[in-house]
Specification:
The longest helix has 36 residues. By secondary structure, the protein is mainly alpha-helical. The protein is built from nine helices and no strands. Helices cover 82% and strands 0% of the residues. The mean pLDDT is 86.
Length: 217
């Protein structure tokens, strides 16, 4: 399990440190029903990550059981690494363009039901999240774990990936409305630096995957 953790932690952290889902997670605490709405968003976000990671783990497991040559994992890592580096470079060079998306500007009007849908959409249909979930799923599936171990690894991946979205809700539950002022400051900083932070994160993970893939050939 230790070697599997080494495979799943970097991409899970790549999802976790992305400011993109943390901003709406904070904004939802300013709705009429803050904890219910923020909790629904967390449930949708977590479900989408778990679904993506589970699907990719299953596919990787099937390929591993039927593939005679062991180099497929290395090639997948090389392709994923190259894709992440390209996405990171593109995000860096376009980081100053445009304004906040319309859905983010209107997120404070969300209900628990719409927040659940938003969380699911932002995770299960986000290309960067899917690339990182694919990297984690490949690592888990290629380890040929028994079913309970694979399920546990997917749950660990999901918990790490979703921890930063859960943090604002946990802080609000523990400290109440007095946490809203520092959370708003954090939200403003994340909105300003979102693209730059994500560009650096996914580029670093892409380089790590390229190195791992090349080393396995």
């Amino acid at each position: 399990m230790g070697s599997v953790l080494g495979e799943l932690v970097p991409p899970a952290l790549g999802i976790a440190v992305s400011p993109f889902p943390v901003v709406p997670a904070i904004l939802l605490l300013f709705t009429v029903r803050p904890r219910a709405t923020s909790g629904a968003f967390l449930a949708g976000w977590t479900s989408g990550i778990a679904l993506a990671a589970g699907v990719f783990t299953t596919l990787a497991t099937v390929v591993e059981l039927n593939e005679e040559t062991p180099t497929w994992v290395s090639w997948v890592k090389i392709v994923l690494g190259a894709a992440l580096v390209a996405a990171g470079a593109r995000q860096w060079f376009t980081r100053h363009r445009g304004t906040a998306p319309r859905w983010m500007r209107s997120v404070q009007q969300s209900t628990p039901a719409s927040a659940l849908r938003l969380g699911l959409l932002l995770s299960a249909a986000n290309p960067k999240v899917l690339l990182l979930a694919l990297a984690g799923g490949v690592g888990i599936g290629a380890a040929e774990l028994p079913l309970p171990g694979a399920v546990g690894a997917v749950l660990v991946f999901t918990a790490i990936a979703a921890c930063t979205v859960a943090l604002p809700l946990v802080l609000h539950a523990a400290l109440g409305d007095r946490i809203l002022v520092p959370l708003r400051r954090a939200k403003d900083w994340l909105e300003t630096h979102n693209a730059a932070v994500m560009a650096v994160v996914i580029t670093v993970i892409g380089v790590l995957l390229l190195g791992e893939g090349a080393g396995g050939l």
